[in-house]
Write a structure and sequence with these properties.
The complex is a heterodimer of chains A (276) and B (171).
Chain A (H helix, E strand, L loop, with lengths): L1 H35 L10 H16 L6 H4 L1 H10 L4 H25 L16 H9 L1 H4 L4 H15 L3 H14 L7 H18 L28 H24 L4 H6 L1 H8 L2
Chain B lengths: L1 E2 L2 E2 L4 H20 L1 H5 L1 H36 L1 E2 L13 E12 L7 E6 L2 E6 L13 E12 L2 E15 L6
Parallel strand pairs in B: 3-4, 6-8
Antiparallel strand pairs in B: 1-2, 4-5, 4-7, 5-6, 7-8
The chains are: A mainly alpha (276), B alpha+beta (171).
């Protein structure tokens, strides 16, 4: 179902991309026709093609995570263009130039401002397919997490995302104290310990230590990322934190439904952590 | 130019405006006696084109210099990847390599700074204390903001940018 919605959104965005030159040049061609055959219609009527095209371009710019302010403001120019009286020949020339500009801006938007954000399917669902598949992959193990540790995992993750490193470290410390019984998933305990250690160092802006906590090999199946050995210890240190935060996110998502709204708000951060 | 402890810089744009208007004024005063009679106002007015940007630059540089120790005290050193939307408003410190420099000619430079974990835009609303070029390794101190105030991805509103290593070319 969700895949269908994403596919539909992609198809619609592609259609909208084609619609921009179609409306802009279509309007310009109609304008040229009116001008050449002296059709007694207000020359500003075909300018509506450019207005529609710029509104579509602004919409495509808006749905991207990186906003292009030039594309976003094109409707303003088109309305200025529409609002001012102008002679027929100048209007036609302007329309053609404007259509060319919109097409160039569309190409610039596509190549410099990335792809559109995935549509929000449901406010109760994870939108990012990669994150969703990671959370599902870890469900069997992390679903055993009790409601309280799962809530702690959510709190620690949210605090960390907000840059409240000391609060995250304290939260992780208290969660470790409560998780000491054997029933809690070991990977979650390791995740809390890693986040605690690194959050304390981040709070004091300390550099990476010589020795630090990492996940034991038996947790390998739970981890989202594998450190690239060519970058050595710094990479190992950073990946340990990324993995620990993602385990906390997955643990909280799988066992604490009441925290889903907070976790959804922090979803972009989890996506960033998951990205290579 | 140094005023007190503040190194004041005038943008190339302000100098260009001054030069263009000086040229216009010279030409106009040669051909028009009316303009010549108004030179007593026009010449100070012309110099205001330089003085006003300089004064603005001095005030903003002084303000930034005053804010720097406050940020220095509270900012946390983070990897670029850890900067996210939930950190809007938080003071941060990052270290990285300058990959691109934009709008330096406007005295409002924007840098693309990258570390092993990612890259982020660093916006500065005044001129930096020292000239920062591509490939310089820098320490950036600033606050996380959205690119367009209420929308856009997180970027850093830079309070200070300092070279911690010379660029590869200079070495």
């Amino acid at each position: 179902m969700s895949v269908d919605i994403i596919k539909k959104a992609k198809t619609m965005n592609r259609s909208l991309e084609y619609a921009i030159p179609l409306f802009a040049f279509g309007g310009a061609l109609i304008g040229i026709f009116f001008w050449m055959y002296n059709v007694p219609v207000d020359i500003r009527v075909p300018i509506f093609g450019c207005v529609i095209a710029s509104c579509i371009l602004a919409y495509l710019a808006w749905i991207r995570p990186r906003k292009d302010i030039v594309a976003l403001t094109t409707p303003i120019y088109s309305f200025i263009f529409l609002g001012f009286p102008i002679d027929n020949f100048s209007a036609v020339v302007l329309e053609v130039l404007y259509a060319v500009s919109l097409s160039i801006l569309l190409v610039r938007l596509k190549y410099r401002f990335g792809v559109a954000s995935a549509p929000v399917l449901d406010k109760k669902e994870l939108a990012d397919p990669l994150l969703k598949s990671y959370v599902e992959k870890t469900r069997d193990v992390l679903v055993l997490t009790g409601a309280e540790p799962a809530h702690s995992a959510a709190v620690v993750f949210v605090r960390f995302a907000e840059g409240e490193f000391l609060a995250a470290a304290r939260g992780a410390e208290s969660a470790i104290a409560h998780l000491s019984d054997a029933s809690a998933p070991r990977s979650l305990q390791h995740a809390f310990a890693i986040v605690k250690e690194q959050s304390e160092r981040l709070d004091k802006s300390l550099v990476q230590p010589e020795s630090f906590l990492v996940f034991p090999p038996e947790d390998a199946g739970m981890l989202a990322k594998v450190p690239d050995p060519k970058f050595g210890k710094p990479e190992e240190y950073d990946t340990a934190l990324d993995n620990a935060l993602l385990v906390l996110y997955a643990g909280a998502w799988n066992a604490s439904e009441t925290d889903h709204p907070h976790l959804l708000e922090c979803q972009p951060f989890a996506q960033r952590l998951l990205a290579p | 130019m140094k005023i007190g402890n503040v190194n004041v810089k005038v943008s190339i744009l302000a100098i260009a405006v001054f030069v263009i208007f000086t040229f216009f004024l010279l030409v106009a005063s040669v051909y028009s006696p009316e303009v010549r009679s108004q030179l007593i106002w026009l010449i100070p007015g012309l110099f205001m084109l330089l003085i006003i940007p300089m004064a603005l630059n001095y005030m903003s540089r002084r303000e930034y210099a005053e804010m720097e120790p406050q940020y220095e005290a509270v900012a946390k050193t983070v990897r670029i990847k850890l900067i996210n939307e939930s950190m809007i408003g938080k003071p941060v410190r990052i270290e990285g390599v300058v990959e691109r420099v934009y709008f330096q000619f406007l005295n409002r430079p924007q840098y693309l700074v990258a570390d092993r974990s990612g890259a982020i835009s660093v916006k500065m609303f005044t001129s930096p204390e020292e000239d920062v070029k591509v490939n310089d390794v820098v320490e950036v101190l600033g606050q996380v903001i959205r690119r367009y105030i209420a929308a856009g991805e997180p970027v850093i509103n830079c309070i200070s940018i300092k070279k911690i290593k010379k660029s590869k070319k200079d070495q």
